[in-house]
Amino acid sequence: MNDLSDLPPGRPWWHAALHPAPALLVALALWGWAVTRTDVSDLDDFGLVTAVHPAFWAGLTLLTAGFWVTLRGPRRHPLWAPAYVVALLVMERATQAVLYPTPLYAWAWKHDAVVDHLLTAGRLENADAIGDMAVYDQWPGFFAAQATLVRLLGVDSAAHVMAWWPLVSGLLLLLPLLLLYRTFTEDRRLIWTGVWLFCVANWVGQDYFSPQSVAFALHLGVLTVVLRRYGRPGRSAARQRQAVWTVLLTLLIVAVVITHQLTPGMLIVSLAALFLIRRYRDGVPLITAVVIFLAWCLTAALPFLSATMPDMIRSIGDIGGNVSTGYGATPTGTGAVTTSWVARLLSASVLLLAVVGALRRPVLRHRATPLLLIAAAPLPMLGASSYGSEMIFRVLMFTLPGAAFFAAAALLPQVRTLTAMQKAGRTEPRRYLWLPPLALLVGTLAFVPSYSGKDRISYFPPAEVDLVRQVVDRAPDDSLVVAADRNYPLAFADYWRVDHYWFLDDGREHVDAVVRDPATVLARDMSVVKPPGRAYLLFTRGQFADAEMNGLLEKGQLDRIRRSVAASPLFERVAGNDAGVAYVLKETGR
Questions:
Q1: How far is residue 469's CA from residue 489's CA, in Å, rounded to a whole number?
Q2: Is residue 259 within 8 Å of 215, Cβ to Cβ?
């Protein structure tokens, strides 16, 4: 292995530890300066990329350079590497929490509504009571935990922690990643470079307030326990210790299974791949995961699976369809297309580096074969389901822990023993030494457009939150709230008493009918609501941004729909501000 343990001791650690401090502190100071001078009130199609103050980019560049120099120093104190990684997570994941006064992502607001339902109802409910949203009650682990946390903190809702959840999620992954990589190497450069690459390549956005964020951390925890504690056949004493780890393993698997639908499947295929290696032939982890997963599917999750199983079966083997984005998920416009391509190139570069690293380091490839299997195991899931056109992104995320490790091996120069250095008369080859840090810097900077380039879609200003809240609060029970699409805050608010409908989710033929004669078609669709319920129509900034940037409708078509409703005698305006407007269908129009 390429360890640093044979390098000579130098001056006391505290003397060497002083050197990384300036770069780290100045980088954080530049970040702090940038976020206090960034205006996000009028985002363009490049999102945070063009909105953030230039000092942010300078700070991120300095942080990356400082990390590389610090890691290259053989006598740096071992705490400096994690300090730089935590600073990276702060600059990556906390920037949005500091800049935006409201939480991002419509899906995060949806999950807040599920937590609110648990707090309101005090129990889980089936589809007869809450319709399609019952699926969340069938995987309640995350939501029940958040409801408990809300009550312990004494706050009104989970919205108080939503904005900071990406940072919390990133920090949760550090320990399992560190232990996972330390299973196969003691080279701290390789370990922390792998962690760094994982952080900058994990742009998929599943770290928001979601069950997936917790389930993924638990998934890595299970794999770490298996790789560190189930790799060697033990004697009686070792078996007794392993029994303790089996209890922990069982608890982690149960938490994964009751929290998220997809992660247990990813976990099982990963454990099955590890079982192929002779060293990990202990069947306890795999059997435990399969039994718990099947038990849950055949009991609590059976209603959802019974309804969706035909579609799931039809999608098996349809790789092209499963990875296709399709109508409504196609980046449109210069900003959306550019940031999407940056994200794709970032992922492709890390995967390519992983291949290079595996080929370049045969010894490492042999010792860390389980990480290669972990990286490859999720790929067959592309043929299993489309998962709402998200499967390709989920597969990428589950592949990343193993890929980042070998990508780091590709970036690092060969480290030789002290004897070899003395015989050669030089420390190591100096040609192309600028390439690895440059690649690391480019990848780190590329994270920003990949992760925050579509913040025009994801960010909902306070005025938009206030507008939607006005509509939901005034709506009687059994009312209907209609919108173009679900990309707005509180899109699922009070779903147990108020129905929600998004006409852009319908087939293209019906959408075209709405575009041709907006007020008439929408009034006809909304007239099914029976008194005392009312039918509301909501137009907000977030809906228009999503429709434009994801190819749902053009701006001119959206403006035409809004003008038609505003001019129609069938509708009455009930609320509005600079973030949108709301109408109610008049009683006489039914």
A1: 9
A2: yes
Percent of the chain scoring above 70 in pLDDT: 85
* Calpha distance 174→166 (Å, rounded): 13
Q: Are 450 and 342 in contact (CB under 8 A)?
A: yes
pLDDT at 204 over 50: yes
Strand pairing class (571-577; 580-585): antiparallel
How far is 275 from 280, CA to CA, in rounded Å? 5
Mean pLDDT of 520-549: 92
With CA atoms as reference, report the closest residue to 467 among 530, 382, 533, 536. Answer: 536
d(CA 56, CA 184): 35
* DSSP 8-state assignment for residue 557: H
Give the chain's largest Cα–Cα span.
Answer: 94
The two tokens of residue 42 are 């009028």
SS3 479: strand
Average pLDDT over residues 568-588: 90
Report pLDDT for 556: 87
Q: Write the pLDDT tens digit of every residue in 348-378.
A: 999 999 999 999 888 888 888 999 999 998 8
Cβ neighbours, 10 Å, residue 9: 8
Residue 132: C-alpha distances to residues 208, 381, 475 (Å)? 22, 24, 20
Judge residue 272's burial from the number of C-beta atoms within 10 Å of its C-beta, 0-12 exposed, 13-18 middle, 19 or more buried: middle
- Count of C-beta atoms within a 10 Å radius of residue 329: 13
Question: In angstroms, rounded to a whole number, what is the distance separating the alpha carbons of residues 486 and 482?
Answer: 9
CB distance 85 to 193 below 8 Å: no
CA–CA separation, 143 vs 119, rounded Å?
10
Q: Can you list the positions of beta strands (E) in 291-397?
A: none
Which runs of E-coded beta strand occur in 351-473?
A: none
Q: Determine the angle formed by the axes of helices 236-257 and 284-297, rounding to 10 degrees.
A: 30
Tokens of 298: 């055949």
Q: What is the 3-state secondary structure (H, E, C) of 501-552?
A: EEHHHCCHHHHHHHHHCHHHHHHHHHCCCCCCCCEEEEEEHHHHHHHHHCCC
So what's the pLDDT on residue 321?
54
List of residues 6+ apart from 127 with CB closer than 8 A: 134, 303
* Residues β-bridged to residue 406: none
Question: For residue 583, what are the β-bridge partners?
Answer: 537, 573
432 three-state secondary structure: coil
